[in-house]
Write a structure and sequence with these properties.
With 241 residues, the protein is mainly β. The protein has one helix and 15 strands, in the order E-E-E-E-E-E-E-E-E-E-E-E-E-E-E-H. The chain has one helix at residues 228-240; strands spanning 2-3, 9-11, 47-52, 58-63, 75-82, 87-96, 103-109, 114-120, 134-144, 150-157, 161-162, 174-175, 182-189, 192-197, 216-220.
Length: 241
Amino acid sequence: VKADANGTVQNVLRTPNVLGLGGNAFVQSPSNPIPTGSNNLPGSGGFEGMALNASGSTLYTLLERPLTTDTDQKRLLIQAFDLGTEAFTGEVSGYQLDAAGTNIGDMTAIDDTRFLVIERNGITATSASGTPFKKIFMIDLARVDANGYAQKTELVDLMNIADPDDLNGDGSTTFTFPYVTIEDVLVLDAKTLLVINDNNFPYGGGRALASDNTEFLRIGLANPVPEPGTWALMAGGLALL
């Protein structure tokens, strides 16, 4: 939705069903106010990821869940929206969910092609069964495989964070972040990330059967986020080998 500085809506820009999955030309959820056909996105499955690239020219949108008309239910769609022309460019990439992942929580730009993505499932520390899956991956839209999936590299397992000084005082040297709605990841510097959960007040169930807190988690990475030149050197080294 485009609005001016006073909040007056100037335009509504619909998301194209760029891969033509099903009969609807647009991506449409059950809550869409401008229906044009059958729904092809589950409720609460819209733009959980929306990231402006470093140069400020392109907005990348990442759907939280797969389209219901997609035969590959591990594929999430990333589309590019050009801010100059105010239109989707037709550029599309796939984000491949892990076997244990069901949806994403956020996408943040590192530069013009690389992004951080929070991937998760709905299982928490208080769930009756199953294992919580909460991770941060780096994807690179400049490196796409034959199936259209962006290159994906795991950076952080949020259920297995080293806490040698037991900063939260729970008696363990491993810290976990078992919430359902982990929805913010920010790059503070090349070796530091900030991760925040949405507590969904008044609900809960992340750590206890009570209202969740909103936690701000500052994570020091063992290695800095690789610079583009580092990837080029790695690729050259592999080719040489």
